[in-house]
């Protein structure tokens, strides 16, 4: 297990290095934006990572709610997975917002604007920050149930974010992929994007697996503490 | 599955919340509070156009940019309609602001028919193509240190 974990890390670092090489040296310079467009190879993989890990959080939250009475162990595993998914998703969301802002400054002339895409994304970030705060401020099965319900409601914003550039007029460009005519990525830029998506997803899986393991240990420690507390009351009884 | 009163209550609450979100989304879209207006919409607004703070989108007409300090005068085109813009702002326009590029001007529409902008934003396409060899990209100054010399 430990060998597998370090092997996976080595794979991640290799992919990240190769992705960097592809993005910085192999992909051609973009015609209108120049080299600043290379941030695209980090901006898009961040949102891919966010979408994947918030979906993991959603699936695990539904599993928790469905199994919390019938299969308590599966429910606890799901809860740990939901937390890991939300945390890694928030990291990707933060990186996506920051890379977007850095890109917007030279290309749009502004750091930020309140269009539908940027606003709905900021709301998504706030929803998952509040999810993590709820988990931090409360404990026990009630917190887990509330967090799972919040996660399901919170995920409703993900499709809104995705479709915002199609539904409304936005500062953010229309979708590059499946965006119809007058959109799209030159085939020579595709490898850099795909390698970086693979690399950052692999990195996300590695971090999430560590967080999952830590959370499971924390749950077991809490259970043991509760059990000892219960046993200590039995000893004083006649 | 037998439905108990609690499930019913949660169901009603969920329906109300989703209903309110859908209602707000639909009404805000119908109210036309868009992020920006087109030149055609601006010209169709009548006297309302002069009193509102607006954001107008269009393509920068070729050879229309006259720079003056940090400001610029230029013409926006959209489907044959044109709009003269006088930009007087604190910051110079972004590097991507040039002939044929999409731009958003933020400001007020004057009765002189000129749009007085205080902010200028470029809007970029979602089509990425490699630069042709030898052609300098718009943001060359940002890209390579050699270009700044």
Q: Topology of this structure?
A:
The complex is a heterodimer of chains A (238) and B (149).
Chain A: H1 2-26, H2 40-67, H3 72-108, H4 116-137, H5 140-155, H6 157-167, E1 183-185, H7 190-236
Helix pairs in contact in A: 1-7, 2-3, 2-5, 2-7, 3-4, 3-7, 4-5, 4-6
Chain B: H1 5-30, E1 37-38, H2 39-44, H3 48-51, E2 53-60, E3 66-68, E4 71-78, E5 81-87, E6 102-109, E7 114-123, E8 126-128, H4 140-143, H5 145-148
Parallel strand pairs in B: 1-2, 5-7
Antiparallel strand pairs in B: 2-4, 2-6, 3-4, 4-5, 6-7
Structure description:
The complex is a heterodimer of chains A (238) and B (149). Chain A contains 7 helices and 1 strand, in the order H-H-H-H-H-H-E-H. Chain A is mainly alpha-helical. Chain A has a single domain (36-175, 186-213), classed as Four Helix Bundle (Hemerythrin (Met), subunit A) (Up-down Bundle). In chain A, helix 3 (72-108) runs antiparallel to helix 4. The longest helix of chain A has 47 residues, at 190-236. The radius of gyration of chain A is 21 Å and the shape is elongated. Chain A starts with a helix and ends with a helix. By secondary structure, chain B is α+β, with helices and mostly antiparallel strands. Chain B has a domain at 37-123: Nucleic acid-binding proteins (OB fold (Dihydrolipoamide Acetyltransferase, E2P)). Helix content of chain B is 30%, strand content 33%. Chain B has 5 helices and 8 strands; from the N terminus they run H-E-H-H-E-E-E-E-E-E-E-H-H. Chain B has helices at 5-30, 39-44, 48-51, 140-143, 145-148; strands spanning 37-38, 53-60, 66-68, 71-78, 81-87, 102-109, 114-123, 126-128. A 5-stranded mixed barrel of chain B has the order 2-4-5-7-6. In chain B, strand 6 (102-109) and strand 7 form a beta hairpin. Chain B is elongated and about 70 Å long. The N and C termini of chain B lie far apart (74 Å). The model of chain B is unreliable at 140-149 (pLDDT under 50). The chains are: A mainly alpha (238), B alpha+beta (149). The A-B interface holds A 28-37, 40, 106-110, 113, 115-116, 153, 156, 167-171, 173-176, 179, 182-186, 188-189 and B 17, 21, 29, 34-36, 57, 91, 93-97, 101, 104, 119-132, 135, 137-140, 142-144. Strand 1 of chain A pairs parallel with strand 8 of chain B.
